[in-house]
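P.,

For your records, the input lines for the assembly:
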Amino acid sequence: MTLELASVQGVQVEDTGIDTSPLAIRGLTVSYGQKPAVFSVDMTAQPGAMTAIIGPNGAGKSTLLKAALGIVKPLSGQVTVFGAPLEQQRARIAYVPQRSSVDWDFPTRVLDVVLMGLSRELGLLGRIRARHTARAMDCLHRVGMRDFADRQIGQLSGGQQQRVFLARALAQDADLYLLDEPFAGVDAATEKAIIAVLKSLKEAGKTVITVHHDLATVTDYFDHVFLINTRKVAEGPVAQAFTAETLQSAYGGRLATAQIDQISRALG
Amino acid sequence: MLWDALTLQLGYNATLVAVGATLLGVSAGVTGTFLFLRKRALVSDAISHATLPGVCLAFMALVALGGDGRNLIGLLAGSAVSAWVGLLCMNWLTRHTRLAEDAAIGAVLSVFFGLGIVLLTMIQTMGVGRQAGLEGFLLGSTAGMLWADALIIAGGGAATLLLVLILRRPMLQVAFDPEYAAARGLPVNRIDLAMMGLVMAVTVVGLKIVGLILIVALLIIPPVTARFWSDRSDHVVLLAGLAGGAAGYLGAALSASAPNLPTGPIIVLVSFGFFALSMLLAPARGVMAAVLRHLRFQRRVHIRQGLLALAQGQKIYEPLTLRLLRRADIVRADGVATEAGKARAAKALRDEKRWEIVRADQAHEATAALYDGLRDIETVLTRDQIAEIDRRIGGPQGVSA
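Structure tokens returned:
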């Protein structure tokens, strides 16, 4: 496939039916003011896969995720989750926002944040019972943060805060996990802990979609990629869609040739 | 006199005012906490100022309908309508223009208040009798408070608290992490509007006692006070209710204990008193605690550094370190280490090595996070864990822990 073709249509390597895909996006356009951040993007997530959304800074990666979740309002386009409209499937989606999106001096403990993941079950007036706490503690255990349950969230390091966010998402026991740059600015221990949890989710048949910025780890961590630069550039299994050509097309001159060579070599 | 006031023995009106002020304080403190946690405290100022045109228009309408214009429910209903309009204007400005919320607050507050003052002046020149009561809504006027007024305050306050109880979880989720709340499918805008609606209800209910200019103090000061005492939002909510209620009760009693003390402003000052005390004295977040913590920390750092210097045979020059070491009987007056001092120095050095291992080991992450260069390792690890670490360090075993 030629480069022009790839950039115009995107590389569509495989296609699961829209009606079953964990997340199917059609013709999504989001604009802040007059300049579209995401333009007419289609995406069909593979069930049970770990997909990385990658692209240069300002390519609309986070915006795509937020629009898929209805956090930002798209200009046009439709989103279906497991074949049904988004609003009907909220309970099956867990979202891990960027760490910087909240005020960490907020008066709340680690455990309380994880319990927020259970808010659907608790309802408006339901009491927090021992089994809820036990489940929250279990989620904290999975991200290696059990000992921190009683701490005020502001006392945590950045990586620990990120893991608490992940634990809150785990508490939802969802089928589709959407994460916004979970590895940004975290320590190596956190990165290891998070990737282990994500892989265990995949093994349990869950679908994981992650905005990711580190090209060097894409092949290690993910089996599918979605390349975006305002428009979709490529989508599919890492081996087919994460290539020197697609990267060149997504990043243009922003990626050093050496980096591309390195990734090509890593891919064999 | 003050004692009589505090025990509600100053007569019917004073008792009504005290009970009303307490209820208002509780509901304002509790409701204000959500506003404070959402970081939109000043919105309440715009809401309260936006009540004035409504009060005036309602008065004019009541007079035009042939009444004397002093029907409290009618006036409060009018104030609620115009506050709601002000709130919607503010929402529209922030969502559909490039104006930031602070600018929108300024615009709505001043325009609505200005309009209200114009209407108030017109009413005063209208020559209708008994309109004097309207200025009371600016700073509150409790002198002629009636049983019916107290009932309105009690009912409004109770209804507000009930709604807060129902909406507390979604409101806290939206305050902490609006994006996550939206991703869960919570209607963030509507929850925000509901929160503002509750604030508006408190404002309207409080017009009679503290008035529209000062109600913002009752909504903001108690939560800020409570925040000094707790790191848990549910506790902050309850403490804010407590602080608000106490301020209302004490303030009302104080103002009743002497002539010519305005109730609303006194309540606000009492509330500020609680705030000032909390700011100074609160155990974890207070100013004094912070100063003490800093001094204690500095002392511990000096002693620790002194011990490490002794263990490594380095000379100590820092006068504060020497003084502290002497006071702790670690060195003698001539600067030579005592026997006990030598033992402590050796242990300090050993602890440093142990900490090094702990901090490099992923399995000890939670413990490692406690490292501050000062803590004795046996306060965070079991004897067995320390023995295991000592085995890894090697060298002489059985150094006391």
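Two observations worth noting. Residues 311 and 342 of chain B are 7 Å apart (CA to CA). DSSP finds 18 helices and no strands in chain B.

Regards
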